[in-house]
Design goal:
Strand order of the largest sheet of chain B: 3-6-9-12-15-17-20-23-25-27-29-32-35
Number of helices of chain A: 4
Radius of gyration of chain A: 18 Å
Largest sheet of chain A: 4 strands, antiparallel
Strand content of chain A: 15-25%
Shape of chain A: elongated
CATH superfamily of the domain at 19-226 in chain B: Single-stranded right-handed beta-helix, Pectin lyase-like
Helix content of chain A: 25-40%
Structural class of chain B: mainly beta
Distance between the termini of chain A: 68 Å
CATH architecture of the domain at 19-226 in chain B: 3 Solenoid
Number of domains of chain A: 1
Oligomer: heterodimer
Radius of gyration of chain B: 27 Å
Order of helices and strands of chain A: HEEHEEEEHEH
């Protein structure tokens, strides 16, 4: 009996606080940042906090803006995830991903940001579409410039 | 001297009559393929396509031509290609039945694409099962009129937008029917354009969607049964008049979603049976007047991020809740509306109620914090709560009130 209660308790703890990615329900979930229904399965992004709370977004733009706004440290973001453009409906670590900014690849929130898991894939898409490739840190550094200035390439 | 100069001018630039030819394309004609006709045609020619079934892959139109379908010839993309691609000015495409466009995961393939062109007219075509229907990119001064565009979008993966306009200006979209796509009409970075008298139904996301678009207007459209009716986002100076927003119903659904927009007019629209009539987040300096809100879950959901909006002379009829907000301060003006829930009196008989109407009920305030509480909606205890709050307001925004509520409904045209 005791073990059963203990097990039940453990289950409760594990289920309520597990930090794991949650698949995005395209066509149903709304972006926390811009309130739009998340539709394009090549662009969905997600944040999971240390307490297991999941925030979903429709684009890299909304993800970066959300993180900028919540830099106060009240919440710990355990997982920051993006969808690689060539692997729709999957989620990979945003901080290790690479971002192509090309005027021939319009993204949902107008800043032309497309994520790729591997740098080599990003580069091969760059061959076809043009633009520049940024790592996560450089993307964040340049984000305000992207926001204020249009795209030229 | 002047005559001499004139003569010289005429002599050096002989006046040419516009010699426009008409080329017929059909199974029994000399030309059996549209692309062959386009190749040999001269700018200004008319290509008449007779009834039949044409499957030619991508047809690129690179000169000023009028392509005229007679009796709706069928142009089939064989689920592989984009169908018409226009890369010249002043092209006109009318009277075609265009179907089965290809689907690509990197390219937005369309039934008719207009790329970097001006003065084009796309009218009276039927587009069935095209991934994107009509797609304008870097276009200006174009007209999209009277087209019927029906997708087969069952889920969000297989769907583009019926009319997609990107980085364009002075576009008129008029009298089109847009069914079962992702968005019925989508505009991104589009300026000085008009969207009039279209019908947008059964689209998965929005009937009409503005992104980063300024100085546009939409009038006399019908938005019915979409994921949400219209979304106006990150835009300025949008005029919205005489539209019908109907049955946009679902847990996250709205008639009209306003997100980060300023300076607009919302006048003479009807909002009927939507989960939320108008949802405003970061909506500022808007005028909402002469609208009718009937049988919506919430007529207005105006968040605390909305400032200086005028809500005047509207009819609020039998909505479950009239207004809901998430703050206790009010930065908007509600004045001279008719509220069917108003129970005040008019002793001086001037047509204006003598006691202010507070459209935010305590219980709707509770449901905005705890959505599940909606299950208690019809309980007598809730009536008691609402009454207590009416007598002694403590939680609802005290200044959110209509000091001049009308006793009679405003007649609407």
């Amino acid at each position: 009996m005791k073990t059963l209660i203990l097990f039940a308790l453990l289950l409760l703890v594990v289920s309520s606080c597990s930090v794991s990615p949650q698949p995005i329900q395209y066509g149903h979930d709304n972006c926390v940042q811009c309130a739009m229904t998340i539709m394009d399965h090549r662009y969905g992004t997600e944040v999971v906090t240390s307490t297991g709370k999941v925030y979903k977004f429709d684009s890299v733009e909304c993800l970066v803006e959300f993180l900028e706004e919540r830099e106060d440290g009240k919440e710990q973001f355990s997982l920051v995830l993006v969808t690689p453009f060539n692997q729709p409906q999957t989620l990979v670590d945003a901080r290790k991903s690479h971002y192509l900014r090309s005027k021939d690849l319009p993204s949902p929130m107008g800043m032309y940001l497309t994520a790729f898991k591997e740098e080599s894939t990003a580069m091969s898409f760059r061959e076809e579409f043009g633009g520049r490739v940024y790592c996560w840190e450089k993307l964040n550094e340049n984000f305000d410039v992207f926001r204020l200035k249009g795209i030229e390439n | 001297m002047i005559t001499a100069a004139c003569l010289f001018l005429f002599a050096s630039f002989p006046v040419q009559l516009p010699a426009s030819d008409t080329l017929n394309v059909g199974k029994a004609e000399r030309l059996t393929r549209i692309s062959d006709a386009v190749n040999i045609a001269l700018p200004g020619d008319v290509i008449r396509v007779l009834p039949g079934f044409y499957q030619e892959g991508n047809i690129i139109i690179d000169k000023k031509l009028h392509l005229e379908g007679i009796g709706f010839p069928v142009i089939d993309g064989n689920r592989k290609d984009e169908i018409f691609t226009v890369v010249a000015d002043s092209v006109r495409i009318s009277g075609f039945h265009i179907q089965n466009c290809g689907m690509s995961f990197v390219k937005d393939l369309a039934g008719i694409r207009v790329d970097q062109s001006a003065h084009c007219i796309i009218e009276n075509n039927r587009l069935i099962n095209t991934f994107f229907g009509i797609y304008l990119k870097n276009a200006r001064d174009c007209m999209i009129r009277g087209n019927y565009i029906e997708g087969l979008a069952k889920d969000e993966f297989s769907s583009g937008n019926a009319i997609h306009i990107w980085y364009s200006k002075n576009i008129t979209v008029e009298g089109n029917t847009c069914l079962q796509h992702r968005d019925g009409i989508y505009l991104e970075f589009v300026e000085h354009s008009s969207i009039n008298r279209n019908t947008s139904e059964r689209n998965l996301r929005y009937g009409l969607h503005f992104m980063f678009s300024n100085h546009d207007d939409y009038r006399g459209n019908v938005f019915r049964n979409n994921g949400a009716g219209v979304a106006v986002m990150f835009s300025k100076n949008i005029i919205m008049e005489d539209n019908l927003f109907e049955r946009n119903w679902g847990s996250n659904s709205y008639g009209l979603l306003l997100k980060d927009i300023t300076d607009g007019e919302i006048v003479r629209n009807r909002f009927h049976r939507n989960t939320i009539g108008i949802y405003g987040d970061g909506a500022n300096r808007l005028r909402m007047a002469h609208n009718e809100f009937s049988q919506n879950g919430w007529a207005l959901k105006i968040l605390g991020s909305c400032y200086d909006n005028q809500v005047t002379a509207n009819n609020f009829l039998d909505n479950t809740f009239d207004v809901i907000t998430n703050t206790t301060v009010n930065n908007n003006r509600y004045h001279g509306n008719f509220w069917s829930d108003y129970t005040g009196y008019d002793l001086d008989r001037d047509g204006v109620g003598d006691v202010p109407y507070k459209p935010v009920k305590l219980f709707s305030f509770v449901t905005s914090r705890v959505p599940q509480a909606i299950i208690l909606l019809r309980s007598p205890f809730v009536d008691l709560l609402n009454f207590a709050e009416k007598v002694m307001p403590s939680l609802t925004p005290q200044t959110l009130e209509d000091v001049a509520p009308l006793m009679k409904m405003i007649p609407m045209p």
